[in-house]
User: Fold this.
Amino acid sequence: MMKAATRIIRAGLPDPQQAAPFLPGPTFAAPYHAAGDPVNAPYNYGRLHNPTWTHFEQALGELEGGLALAFGSGMAAIASVFGSVLRPGDKVVIPSDSYYLARVMTNGYFTQMGVQVVMAPTANNAQLEHLNGAKLLWLETPSNPGLDVCDIRAMAQAAHEHGTLVAVDNTTATTLGQQPLGLGADFSVASDTKALTGHSDLILGHVAVKDAKLMDGIRMWRNQIGAVPGPMEVWLAHRSLATLHLRLERQCASALTIAQFLSEQPSVSDVRYPGLTTHPVHELARQQMDYFGPIISFTLADEATAQRFLSKCQLVYEATSFGSLHTTAERRARWGGDVVAAGFIRMNIGCEDVDDLLDDLRQALK
Ligand SMILES: *Cc1c(COP(=O)(O)O)cnc(C)c1O
Assistant:
């Protein structure tokens, strides 16, 4: 099989047609012309399908190794898995360090709808202890912002022995960095707002599955809830997807260099990056990931030191989110919600020259 770096360049592009563009432009349509029997009109209404989505979903399906469906945001994609799988009386096991809003949604809405929500940390596969009677095991690895890692293959196997479905929030790694379906998960879910598209210019998400029946549930959810993406966003995403490999190569190489640099600074503690050989789960990360991702985290003395550092950085935008080709960072505790020290910083390493980034961080730490 061709390497991912090659496949991603053409993923989802239609067969060559004389005088046609490689990637057709976005199709803007609410209704489509659709006369007579709707079976003969593959596109009839814009909430149900769009040719621009079809190309992008084809690309995601090829890369994920399954069938994919795009959503208007990462949260919409996450909600489609919870919403299509969970019914009153069901039990779901989620990471206590999962994406904040995923926790808010399960502990809020789904608890109120009669779903039992159990939380355990990502580290040490701690969620495994709670599989008894669970309908769904929700994983997020590497977790964020703590960057802990769990063993997807081992956990999927154990879950399936309990009759439990497995979903992985794969946002941090992206489909190039980690392949949840190949490791045994039933759902691979991601916010494509982050590294997958990587240009800080759109909100998008997707779900990928192997099993067509699970896809029916996800599709029905999207059709009925209407959490659909705009064609312009999807077209931009498809355009950006083609450079994911190039961006990740640069971002991950620089992230490792910068994590090593920070580890040597006396004013910096608790540097976390799964690619660091000193990271407690480096060996597991190496086995299940092809890229360790663009995020590093570290801790400065206190809130004031961390804020001063961020304000002195010239090449680092102070912003939330991650994955883009712009280097960004934030003091995570400013939001509340995550259990982190006041001086804890999450940094996304972008595509700038790593020597310039190192110079900037060096002067800002002084
Ligand atoms: C950002 C993010 C989400 C939510 O995605 P949106 O596109 O902002 O809705 C979900 N999971 C993780 C891990 C994220 O980082």
